[in-house]
Amino acid sequence: MTICSFFECGLPVRGASLGLCNGHRLQVQRGKPLKPLKSAITPFERFLNLIPRSSVGDCWNWEGAVNRDGYGLFRYDEASGKAHRASFLFSNGYLPVRPWVVDHICRNRSCVNPGHLRAVTQSENCYNRGLNSNNSSGFPGVIWRKDVSKWRVRIGHGQQAVELGHFEDIKDAIRVCREFRENNHSTWEGLI
Fold first, then answer.
1. For residue 84, what pLDDT is reported?
2. Cα separation of 6 and 155, whole Å?
3. Residue 98 is part of a domain; what is its CATH number?
4. CA–CA dist 76, 44 (Å, integer)
5. Is there a domain that residue 122 lies in?
6. CA 50-34-23 angle, 5° bins
7. Statement to judge: residues 52 and 105 lie in one domain
8. Measured over all CA atoms, what is the biggest interatomic distance in the chain, rounded to whole angstroms?
């Protein structure tokens, strides 16, 4: 990647642009003398300008652009990404790679407080999301089936699912579900 030839700019050059970044190329095209760009601040400084000033334990709700799922958006390293991933990168110095993802401990998608973020596997992240809206038992993997008037135990992981049966008593259903998870932890990692 070629860097702008203006002294200490550091921004990337795109296309046939006289060896200058877009901002400095526009200055030349408009006949103006080259001078430092006002917006030439680091991605970290831009990030800090888009978080609220609140206490350490609170959620820091992103004040920049937000996608339709409620995640903050932030542009860094010439790529668009989610703001919570940028926060994790700035605070830890790395981004997790597959199968690892950045998880919100607080369950608040717009939060960028690094104390509320952790690296987990995708399956752990899905499990941590909580119960589906159709879950009537309050326990993952156990739902009430009206058509048979019983509690169904079904555990899914990725593309796989295991049907463990139907039970009249919810306590039996939860016990079977728990035992399966405990006995198959190494095979079904992240489901306990």
1. 94
2. 59
3. 3.90.75.20
4. 9
5. yes
6. 40
7. yes
8. 81
Residue pointed to by tokens 């004040």: 63
Contact 103, 119 (CB under 8 A): yes
What is the rounded CA–CA span in Å between residue 165 and residue 182? Answer: 17
pLDDT for residue 77: 67
What 3 state SS string does 134-170 have? CCCCCCCCEEEECCCCEEEEEEEECCEEEEEEEECCH
Where in the sequence is the domain holding 156, given as residue range(s)? 131-183
Residue 136 sits in the same domain as residue 167: yes
Name the amino acid, one letter, at 171: K
Q: In the chain, which residues have pLDDT < 50?
A: 189-192
The alpha-helical segments, DSSP class H, found in 14-130 are 22-29, 43-48, 83-92, 122-128
Note the pLDDT of residue 32.
86
Same structural domain, 107 and 61 = yes
Residue 19 lies in a domain: yes
Which residue matches tokens 């593309």? 159
Locus of tokens 């901002």: 23
Question: According to the model, what pLDDT value does residue 2 have?
Answer: 79
